[in-house]
Specification:
The structure is a homodimer. The first copy, chain A, is an all-alpha fold. Chain A is built from 11 helices and no strands. Chain A has helices at 14-29, 36-43, 47-54, 57-67, 69-86, 94-109, 114-127, 133-155, 161-180, 184-188, 198-217. In chain A, helix 2 crosses helix 3, helix 6 (94-109) packs antiparallel against helix 11 and helix 7 (114-127) crosses helix 9. In chain A, 45% of the residues are buried. The structure holds a DNA duplex.
Chain lengths: 219, 219
DNA sequence: CAGGCTATTCAACAAGCGTTGAAAAATCAA
DNA sequence: TTGATTTTTCAACGCTTGTTGAATAGCCTG
């Protein structure tokens, strides 16, 4: 009676509902800004159940962080491979690589599954946090990032590795702020730009970043 | 007997010590990740004193946020004015404008005053936070940002305002991650890049961003 | 239907939280 | 030295927090 509900909304398995609620709340308020009781309330579940399924609060946080990581990494890796397959011997261009790095995120956010939007906002929170940031990000994303950086190195022959890393840092920052969905650019532009218009965000980000890479790494 | 201490370290006026401690802790752990008791302990002060000087916890947070805002805005505005003064009728170039936007931050962080480093990390935290972000940032920084955007508009004749705002968004993201000082790029690059090497960070960021603006806004 | 396992709730714990009012100390003016 | 004012401490409040152990309900296997 729990899974095949007609609406398919509130009756998902409780374990999953806890993850969903935690994902949304952690993304908006951070680890310390959220209470296990708030999570339980939103999941319509008893407080103790989170503990039964996930252990301590920090373990729940990590479970949320890891739930979608593999599938996200697969999508991005696959996009990179695809661009490499269609390219010639010299490999894909900078634009194509950045495109492969970013578009899967846009697609994930556009599935209509709000969970992905919250998840990516959570990644933004973690990536920008001096405390959780380095360790948690490294653990899940370093391998993938190094693949992309290697591809960029090939697309920018003769570039100094140091320069590539600094450029990646700039890319990562622009992306992080986009994922955070803070609505700041909405206010600033008087409604001309909308944080939730992801296609516009990435359409402007890709040429911006590609030009930056070329400028810094290729002269 | 309190101010003219020989070392000038721990004997600063207590009100200021509270702000310093709060600044550092809020920057690292966010608003909810810090306890008034932790702040008081670091400031070597009684818990109740924070309340006496600043009121509620949120008021203290805002006091920290506002303490250095005016002087920072002045420095950046002055840098913009200087670049406008030395430029001809068509105004400063994109590089010069970005330079004016960023270098005062580098200088602030390099004064040796650790407080500035913490303060700028706090701004990164706020700017990336969906909850505090838009309102608090707008209140203190919108006027200045609009001045810079106007200058960029003049340096990029014919550019669509929408494109300029999206480029500013990318710039803001790269800057925010730099200010956060998360050490992620240090790990990723195997020590090749250092988050606290601000000159390197800005030296790479300025041409990167300027090229991005040109690419997106000027063709 | 019986029995074992998993999932879920209930009730409560000690600890720590932000905040407060009143007492004490320090500072300053006359 | 007085007395008034500001600054700082003390002690405590009511409340919420994360976490837990025991009790209950649900579910599958035989």
């Amino acid at each position: 009676m729990s899974q095949p509900s007609p609406t398919g909304q509130t009756t998902a398995p409780r374990r999953e509902r806890i993850l969903d609620a935690a994902e949304e709340l952690f993304a908006e308020h951070g680890f310390d800004g959220v209470t296990l009781r708030q999570i339980a309330r939103r999941a319509e579940v008893d407080v103790a159940l989170a503990n039964y399924h996930f252990g301590k609060k920090l373990d729940l946080f990590q479970a949320v962080f890891e739930r979608r990581a593999a599938s996200l990494n697969d999508a991005r890796r696959q996009a990179l491979r695809a661009s490499q397959a269609t390219a010639g011997d010299e490999g894909p261009t900078v634009e194509q690589i950045i495109e492969a790095f970013l578009r899967p995120l846009e697609l994930a956010q556009e599935t209509g599954d709000e969970g992905w939007r919250h998840y990516l906002a959570l990644i933004a929170y973690i990536n920008n946090s001096p405390y959780w940031g380095p360790r948690m990000m490294s653990h899940l994303f370093d391998d993938l990032v190094h693949e992309f950086i290697a591809a960029l190195g090939k697309a920018l022959p003769g570039a100094r590795p140091e320069n590539i890393y600094w450029c990646y840092h700039n890319l990562s920052g622009a992306l992080t702020l986009t994922l955070a969905q803070t609505k700041r650019i909405d206010n600033l532009s008087g409604g001309l730009c909308r944080s939730d218009d992801l296609q516009a965000a990435y359409d402007h980000m890709i040429p911006f970043v590609a030009a930056g890479f070329r400028e810094v790494c290729q002269r």
